[in-house]
Give the backbone structure.
Amino acid sequence: MLLTNYEPEIIRPPCDYSRETVNAIGHITGDISPVFPYLNAVIPGAEYQPAGKVLRFKWEGHVVTLRPDEMAAGGFNDADEAVDFLARLQKLINDTWERRHTIQPSEVQRKRLVATDVYRLLPRTNCKACGQPTCFTFAAKLTMGEVTLEACPVLTEPQFAAQRAKLEEMIANAVFL
């Protein structure tokens, strides 16, 4: 077991104490960074920074930040929900560590999609067939993971095959937080 214990700390976001949500930090005894390449391999859309030993990803609707000696997440309704989440996160870390011999570790450094880069590859017809008012709105929502390429029927047309392939590659190597 890699992560044997931690000390939970529940805090309100420092910039707005009137918010209804709380954040959680698990202060870890020891160093959990050896599991980061394995988590990076198994969690879609994780953002890994090997040099800084930081791994960020979205899990169960919360943004998680792991550092060698802490695990942090935010957006919880109350302290009990936050503490329960930290326990599940500890289990995820330990389960991944236990399975590490079956996982090809990855140090791929994914990047966030930029709406203008996505927009340049879209058909830019503003046809609204995807349910969005403009292609740029569709691009912005795509960068946030709120829509998928399949929502754009125009991209299935043969003349857009190259753009679609490039978009698929960008999405496969993107961070969605």
Strands lie at 6-11, 22-28, 47-49, 54-59, 62-67, 70-76, 111-112, 174-175. Residues 111-175 form a domain with the 3-methyladenine DNA Glycosylase II; Chain A, domain 3 fold (CATH 1.10.15.40). Residues 155 and 164 are 6 Å apart (CA to CA).
